[in-house]
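Narrative summary of target 7.
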Amino acid sequence: MGMNSTPSAERTHIGFFGRRNAGKSSIVNAVTGQEMSVVSTRKGTTTDPVTKTMELLPLGPVVIIDTPGFDDDEKELGEKRVARTKRTLNRTDIAVLVVDAQIGLGSEDKELVRLFKEKEIPFVIVYNKADLFTECPAQDGDMKSIWVSAKTGEGINLLKERLAAMKPEEHASPLIGDLIEPGETVLLVIPIDKAAPKGRLILPQQMMIRGILDADGIAVCAKEDRLQDVLNSYGAYGNDADGSGADKNGADADKGIAMVITDSQVFERVAATVPEQIPLTSFSILMARYKGFLEEAVRGARQIDRLRDGDTVLVAEGCTHHRQCDDIGTFKIPKWLREYTGKDIQIETSSGMGFPDDLSRYAMVIHCGGCMLGDREVRFRMKCAADQNVPITNYGTAIAHMKGILDRSTSIFDI
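Modeled conformation, tokenized:
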């Protein structure tokens, strides 16, 4: 992803649902103006959810999701397709139910409407093939339905306007803009090792730089082995120098640097170097606040102290990537957990959309920052854990707790 691209997680996810041959793919192509999905008279052409990121006026950056038919009758394979369609709902911000107007609402369509309401997903019912009618029935008074024709384009612009009106609000929690004043300097500690992507920064680092600039702040970046040099240059002499936490003239150590944000993997080293007077937190903790589950993550981190021999912990990531031998999720966090607790803890992992619905076998869940997941998917995962009384936290919060710096790294928040 380029620095000037809107991350998938920040885009409005629009899912198209319905029975086979209702015209979902045709409607998707008409709405997007692209041949995004294969269209065929043969039922079941779409076998897996098809996604595409794009700019769609008047909505802006979106992710379009075309799903398989919800009435698939090919037994085991069909059940898997339907299960994937249901799972797609967890990351859907707006649902479009496409109905063959000649057939009308069927039991599967009504089940989808029930699921939309259960998951509190805004939705619109689209009756396709309006071109086959001389006069279309009046639309529902609640404005939940609209008649269109993928073939002629009738009603497509109205549908796009309806979707724009249903666009979810922006994040309730800002990323960093409310924590700094214009002109203040924020120091970002970014390790560049073999696990770092070549030639670019990872998404939370990109987002933080942009958030600082949007707040008219000054972003300064350094690797952890240059942290002391930066502190010295700003008159903040950390514990690696004389340990005084003050500059040579006795001025406050935090003068010049308003905050330090670090990658969680070097949290302990950075905390030992940055003077106590300078607020310190991590990318992962700020992402937890941004995604709306920081309080839950802090409570979940305390569960680490209650782990017992034989407990199983799920370490979950929202994205998929090539794992290094010292990967944070599969190697470092399990290692730190066992060292901190002294217990024989079993570790299981999940990545991408593979987050399990049934969490009952886990003592707790430690999740990544969720930067690649939309807000709805994050809320779904939090709810899955809460409904099953399974504590959940995230990487940065868990690491801060295990390194004894959780209170310091969350002191700047009102929690």
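The CA atoms of residues 235 and 251 lie 8 Å apart.
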